[in-house]
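Reproducibility note. Readers wishing to regenerate the assembly model reported in the main text can use the exact inputs given here. Chain order matters: entities are listed in the order in which they were concatenated for prediction.
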Amino acid sequence: MLGRRTPTILNLAWGEPLFWDGRAQSLEDQALGPIASPAEMNLPLDQMLARLKAIPGYQALFAKAYPNELVSEQTVSKALATFERSVVSGRAPFDEWVEGNEGAIRTEAKRGFLLFNTKANCVQCHKDWRFTDDGFHDIGLPSKDLGRGNLFREIEVNQSAFKAPTLRNVDQRAPYMHDGSLRTLEAVIDFYDRGGEVKRPSLSPEIKALNLTAQEKRELVAFLKTLTSVDRPTEVPTMPQ
Amino acid sequence: MLRVFSLLIFISVLAFGAVPVAEHTVSQSNKTFSQAELTIKPGDKVVFKNDDNVTHNVFSVSKGAGFNLKTQAPGTANAVPFKNEGTVEVRCAIHPKMKLIVNVKR
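Running the prediction on these inputs yields the following C-alpha cells for the assembly.
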C-alpha cells in the first residue's frame, strides 16, 4: 500500500505544483510518474508506448491532436494533462448562496462559513474559490513522512509539510490528510481544534488550539458539506480500437 | 599637495568602494510578491516585507546567491544583500506560486 492516499484531480488546472510534496512542476511532469512507478501501475514507459502505437484508433487520435508529433512520452503527458485540466468541480449550494440565494444553504452552514473565516481560521490556507492556497504546511500530524521536506532539507518550515488540498466536494473524499489518518470531517475539525497533535519547529504558525464549542464544530461541518457540487455523471468513453 | 590629496581620494574610493548602495523594497501581500521582476546593482539590498496576514518564508537556491529568511511573521521585514552579478530566483517556501526574479547587473 502506498504511504500517501491518492489526492483528487479536481481543479488541478490551477493547482500546481503537483503531488502531496509538490515535486512535479506541472500536470505534464506528473502524469507519467504513477504509470511507471513499481508501487503503482508498474508499466515501463516503452511498453506503454508500444501498446498505444499498436492500436490504430489511438494513432489516428494522436495524429489529429498532435500533428507532426509522434506518439511519445511528451504527447501522452500532454494528452493526460489536458484531460485533467478539464476536470473541474461544478456548482455547489455554497455558490448559489454566495450569488444571492439565501435559501440555498441552512443557517447552520452560514454560521460555519463565518467560523471558517474567523475563529477557526481555516481560510489562512483554504482560501479562494478552490478553498486552497496550494501551499505547503506542517499541521502537526503524527506521521514520519517529511513530505516537502524531502525536497528541501535545509528549509525548516517545509519539514513534515504537505500541500493543502482543495475543499471542493471534500465530503466525498474521506479519509483525510496525506496518509488518510483522519476518517471523518468531524475528526478533522477535532484535530484542528486541538492545534494538531505534534509540536515541532516546522509547525505552521497558523496552527493553534481553537477552543471551538460542539455547536461550532457542527456548523463547520455543515458548511463544508455545502461545497459539494451536483454534477452530471461522467460518460465513460468508448475505447479506441 | 593637491595631487597627493587627489591620489589619496582615488585610492580610498578604490579601497572602500564609494558607489552608493541602494535599498529596494519588495512587499508580500495576498500571497504574492509586489513585483515579478526587479533589476538591481551588485551590493544593493532587497528588503522583503511581509505585508500579508500569513507567515511567509522567502528563500533562493540560486548558485552564489542562496539565502533563506526562514519564517517571517506578518508585519516583519528582512534585508538581503545581493553581492554578485547574475539572475536570482526567489520563492516563498510555503506558497510555491510566489515567484520573483532579481537581476543583478552593473
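We highlight two features of this model. The two ends of chain B are 34 Å apart (CA to CA). The CA atoms of residues 5 and 11 of chain B lie 10 Å apart.
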